[in-house]
Each structure stands twice: as structure tokens, then as C-alpha cells.
Design brief:
Radius of gyration: 22 Å
Helix content: 25-40%
CATH architecture of the largest domain: Alpha-Beta Complex
CATH superfamily of the largest domain: 2-enoyl-CoA Hydratase, Chain A, domain 1
CATH topology of the largest domain: 2-enoyl-CoA Hydratase, Chain A, domain 1
Shape: globular
Number of domains: 3
Strand content: 25-35%
Length: about 425
Amino acid sequence: MVNHKRGLVLAATAAVLTAVAVTGAGLRLSRSQAFFQDNPKELVDEVWQIIDRTYVDGTFNQLDWRAVRTKYLGKSYANKEEAYKAIREMLKSLGDPYTRFMDPEEFKNMQIDTSGELTGVGIQLTKDEETKELVVVSPIEDTPAFEAGILSKDVITKINGKTTQGMEVEDAVKLIRGQPGTSVNLTIRRTGKEVDYSLVRARIELHPVRARVEETPSGKIGYIRLTQFSAQAGEEMRDAIQEAEAAKVNGYILDLRSNPGGLLYASVEIARMWFDEGKIVSTVSRTGETEVQRANKRALTDKPLVILVDGGSASASEILSGALQDNKRAVLVGSKTFGKGLVQSVRGLGDGSGLAVTIAKYLTPSGRDINKHGIDPDVVLELSDEERKALQQEREKIGAFGDPQFDKAFEVLKQEIATSKDSNARVTNP
């Protein structure tokens, strides 16, 4: 179901230390590879042209983009490596950490194979636009990083003892990746203190949805935890909702905490499962063209819904939670989300390398631009670092009674269920 039209995959995710499913025409064109090997300057121009045609900001973040072309095409490049360096410099001048170049090895490492396996430590990583530091968006659940206790918003200051000051995301990815079973040491700064984490790289099989039906004093409720918006997320979410409906649950808790995002279409597909009518998201390109995604009258349930979010809920998580909040379909509980309101396209280039380009921003149904700000929950409950650490050390408590945010979500859901029953009673007994 991934959209491979023209070799593009629309994604709403930060830079990833695992992978995004991508196919590009350049992956199969040996003639093109030979051409770019002999003409590395053409690759520089190809990247410039793509940015020129598709970048979200027509002012290129107040940069004279034509002058950039003159500068870099006025140079000679002896080989592809020199061209790669020039391309990275060129893109860096945009000041956009999400628009980035990947050499063939990096691009290949971004691909998820058909089994859905990832190789790495399970960190979603980005570069803070203001501090220029490498920041953890979120650790992926049940990965070495998650099990070690790395948290959203952690700053990576060293990799194997090498400072990350001035380091690009791609360079950090190269240092952190490696063969399964080998180790990498990350120095993490959190609340002013630095701690070393030794992580063993692993192969990780991802199942994005975990669900159960819980017996409570308010009757049965469905608990669904969504860890990322992968190609499998929609199908697994549909199965989870249908099973919960068959069990006659009274309401749902949807847990999007530490979900760093993923595929844009997956967030739209899942939103349609929860409400029948209304906007889901609109994407706005630099020309002002707006593509609006709407519900399609195919909701699977209208039962009360509470969504758990936190600072690790990013991108596609924010699209889904923003849509449900704006349409008054759900109550959001937890802490403010990450704040990534940009959409990238990822494509293969002629020599087997790849390019991620920010092509649009997205707005919630009410027109909110949440980039850098995030989404404020309806009911705020912050966890301390100690509470978050404790939950990671005792993972069976995540999304269970004893998890403070889950407890609050259940309290809110209980009220929503009672209100819903009162409303239904008034309708049936006028």
C-alpha cells in the first residue's frame, strides 16, 4: 500500500536510525550510475533542480538558491565523493534538518525489507534547528535504545567517545549503525547531566499495534498502543478495533506515546477508522495548493476515545491526534507533543543515492500549524524523568493501571463513557 508513484514516498517522520520503505528509479539504472560516476557535477545539479522545483519554501528560507547553484556548479568534482560533500554543504545552507542527502549506502540502510525487519539500536534522531544538537525524537519500543532507558528529548553529545558538536544526522547514523551483536556507546545529556549508554545493535521485527480488551469497573475497554505509522499499521489497527468491537467494549484508550511518526497515508487511513465526517489533515505546498484529506464515512466505531500523547509523539502521531482533537472525536491526555508539522518526500537519485526533501507543511483540521509548537493535550499530566525511567524498566506497566498517564486516561474515559450512556438514554427515552 506504500505509494511508490514516481519513486516518491510521502513520509511524516524525522530522521530515522532504522528505515523508511523507499523505491527510486535510480536503484535500477546502471547506465545512470555510470553516467554520474563520469559526470559527478550532474548529480549536484540534479539535487539542486529537485530542491528548486519542490522545496516547501519558495524563498528557500531567505536563501538565494540560484546563487547557490552558480557557486556549486562553478566547481570541478573529481569523483562522486567530492560531489556528495558539495551536495551536503548545499543542503546545509537551507537550514532544514529534514532535507538531507544520503549516499547509496545510507539510502540502502533506510529501506525496510518485506519482512519489516530493522537493524540498529532503535532511535529516531533529529537535529535541533536552534542549538544544532542531535536530539532523540523517540526510542522505538522493544529495541536496545528503549530497553537501555534512552528517552525522548535526550541530547546525544558523544558517539563512541567522539563529540557530536557540529555533526550532521547522516554522520551520526553512520557511527551508530553496525552489524547486529556489535556495540556502540552513546553519551546522553539529560537535565544537565551526562550518562554513557552501551547499546548492542540488533535486528528488530516491528509490529506497530499492540492491543487488548481490559475488564474494568466501567465495563470492557479497548487499549491500543500504536508504536509507529508503518505500512502494516492500518491493517493491524483495523484488526484491533474490530476485535474490540466484537468484544463489545464501552470505549477506547489509544496510546501514541513515543510514536515518532511514519507514513503520512497511514495516519489518514487510521483516522478514517475513528470518525465518519470531517477533515483529517491538509497539506500546503509553497504554491499555496492545499490537498485536503477527509473522513469517508467508514468509521469502525463511535465509542468514546481517549488518546495518550507525550513529547515523543511526533509527525504522523500529531496528524492523527490533531485530527481527532479538532473534530471533538477524542480527548487528549498526557504532555505536549514533539512539534513536527513538515512532510518530506524521499526519492532515489540516478546513482543509487537518495534525497529527502521537505515539500509541504501540514495543518490540522482547524488550521493549526503545529511545527515546533506541538499539540497541547486537553488534560495535561507530565511524567517526571524518574517516572518515565521506571516505566521503561518495567515495561509491563506501560499502558496498564499503575502507569500514571494511563490511570488519568482511564479516569477521563470513564467520565466519557458515563456521559455517552446518559446521552443515549435521553435519545431512546425522550
